[in-house]
Amino acid sequence: MESSRRIDVVIAGAGPAGLATALFLVKNRPSLAGRIVAIEKSAHPRFKVCAGGLIPKTMLALDELGIALDVPKVEVIRGEAATPVGGVDLSRGGEVLATVIRRDLFDSMLARTASEAGVEIVERSRVLDIVQDASGVDVSTEHGIFDAQILVGADGSGSRVRRAVFGARKETIGRALMTDIAVDPERTPEFTERRYRFDFRCVSRRINGYSWSFPCLIGGAPHLNLGIYDQRPREFVETGGEQSRMIAELVAAFPEIPLDGLKRHATQWQSFPIRWFDAGDSYASGRVILAGDAAGVDPLMGEGISCAFEHGKLAANAICKFLDGDSGALRAYDRALHEGAAGKKLSKLAFAARHFYSPHHRLFFRIAGISRRAQEIGVDWYNGARHLDEVPTRRLIARWARAVLSREPVR
Ligand SMILES: Cc1cc2nc3c(=O)[nH]c(=O)nc-3n(C[C@H](O)[C@H](O)[C@H](O)COP(=O)(O)OP(=O)(O)OC[C@H]3O[C@@H](n4cnc5c(N)ncnc54)[C@H](O)[C@@H]3O)c2cc1C
Q1: In this structure, what DSSP letter does residue 145 have?
Q2: Where in the chain are the domains?
Q3: What mean pLDDT, rounded, does the chain reach?
Q4: Greatest CA span in the chain, whole angstroms?
């Protein structure tokens, strides 16, 4: 029988969730250096289908980890959203709304930082199977078996760990597709005005999501990343031509961008599933916990990088306590993902998705547009600016209601 290697923590997947968990672990407890292994099926720098928009919440997490964002980036300071009932200005007086990076360089920067801090990353190796008992977890990989105290499933939307330990539930998997096109920055408002654009008008045509246009740099050259998110699980989507319908909606959202020519070139589009948060799920079972897309991220926008960091921080705290002998620490992680600030934010986003993506969506878009000040609170809350998303719900509602009642006109 193949011999196994004993280790404290095995992390399946070296994307943002796995690497954030590892980075918070070595930050909290430097003595764990050399005792954490991340298993990654690919090798950094690896391509990831993602628009790479980092909201301010993610920037706060990077600050907390002492990581300088040392990759090419575009800082977006203006934003607009088209909705079925009119346009919304998302700008916040010149504050950065998002920092757009490319995932290959961002993730490999995180991986390098983690390696330098003493995290071992085993690349080109897949997690294959998981067997746990009261004394530990056996994790079979393409590079041998690890006998770990704890396994973190951070292996993305199609998580092998989730399937093996928590079952294969697919009702909460939506998807997004995207493409990149080279642009002249002098003639492209996304660059001249440093803005991003969202378009929710497709909700009226039964797509539960929105199209986006982000400025970004690929190999130093200005590009637009254009994409469309649909929260609906595959079972609820009419079969046949579903991808071409999404592309048609994206083309309709940005008619001035020459996307039409790409329509027939399937290879120019990349699509990927997004698992979103559902309060009915559990995120800990015995010695196995889930983080990032494997657990479930923002159902409204499909944003997941800030969740990956938030989960990573909570997971690292729980793991340190567990290794110190607190046998309830991993169950507490599960509770934090349901009842803590992160869980409450995701529950509110799930609530918003149920209403904004419902047959009554026009009413909810109208309510959201009632007051400019209320919109600003909503944008700051979503972005986690100045930790507003951690303010207790009652105080937040009181602030929002005061803003709505003051009825400041929408700018
Ligand atoms: C088109 C699109 C656009 C998006 N745009 C944004 C955006 O602008 N901003 C934002 O915040 N979020 C965005 N997201 C969501 C974001 O990409 C994810 O939420 C984020 O990548 C989650 O990080 P993660 O570490 O949980 O998973 P991943 O980034 O998927 O990382 C999982 C890692 O696990 C590895 N892996 C998988 N299976 C195994 C296995 N069996 N064994 C070992 N390793 C394995 C994978 O190779 C991967 O490296 C977008 C998603 C899509 C599809």
Answers
A1: E
A2: 4-71+101-170+277-347, 173-275, 370-405
A3: 92
A4: 72
